[in-house]
């Protein structure tokens, strides 16, 4: 059998661990041939491939990023993209594709099923917003990175008696903000799922300072916005650019700076912002992410050999299972309300 693998969308710690697991499982357990497509679906469309053998992947387990490169190429944004992919795979003799990605990459994988392309999906995103899996790999590393940053911000915030707003990634869902906010003991955690009231945030900060705590960490997801119509327009303008990718997503970033300015203006407390940005996506994966990515990769190859196509490997509890890709991409998995309100809520303010 000849298996092709690609990594698409934003990169994420653990991608190389999946590539390694797929290549070694396919070659050593099944005697398959394996190739890599460069830069996500772009590499299948062009096509642009690299041979992947044992020697190429032995040492990549702890490496951040992806040795295959990635892109946000949407083959369905190109005329006849689906047919082109089917034809290219036929010419390359590729029997099955393991597509490692988030909602966009896996959305393409799902649609390609209609073209007879045999795909197994592996869920990836630091945002953890893919449905049908409890966790995506990369999330744990991003939370660890954000938590370490918050710990560092706390000491300087305390020294200067400041409010520091820490903007983290999370386009549709506030998983990173919630987990890192709980782990870092944030005073405020603001997420895309719950529009925030700036006046209420400032009131809570005032109460906190009046109670003798003269510094605060406010964690905000890049996709969070205020509820109040008067501020919404300026916040939206500050937080996203008009540049969109091939899947129609605007480039986000800026809500943290906007919020820090509002807090300083309304409360008189000195405020600063730190935007963690791509620091959360880079670097070596945590042990948890390495293990999860490895388990996903092994299972993806098993699914290929059982001809269980159109499925995504997923974590449910402690078990690796397979689910229809359609279930994963139908809607974003938003933050668990119980975690946000009942757990995080106890410690805020
Ligand atoms: O991969 C998801 C994500 O990290 C989002 O949280 C963020 O909005 C986006 O990627 C940034 O993408 P890019 O690196 O293409 O600007």
Structure description:
There is one protein chain. The chain is of the alpha/beta class and about 350 residues long. The protein is built from 13 helices and 13 strands. It has helices spanning about 15-30, 40-45, 55, 80-90, 105-110, 140-160, 175-185, 200-210, 230-240, 255-265, 285-305, 325-330, 335-345, and strands at about 1-5, 35, 50, 95-100, 120-125, 165-170, 190, 215-220, 240-245, 250, 270-275, 310-315, 320-325. Strand 9 (about 240-245) and strand 10 (about 250) form a beta hairpin. Helix 1 packs across helix 11 (about 285-305), helix 6 packs across helix 7 and helix 8 crosses helix 10 (about 255-265). The longest helix is centred in the middle third of the chain and has 22 residues, at about 140-160. The radius of gyration is 22 Å and the shape is elongated. The termini are far apart. The mean pLDDT is about 95. Bound molecules: 6-O-phosphono-beta-D-fructofuranose. 6-O-phosphono-beta-D-fructofuranose binds near residues 10, 127 and 252. 6-O-phosphono-beta-D-fructofuranose (F6P) binds near residues 125, 126, 222, 252 and 281.
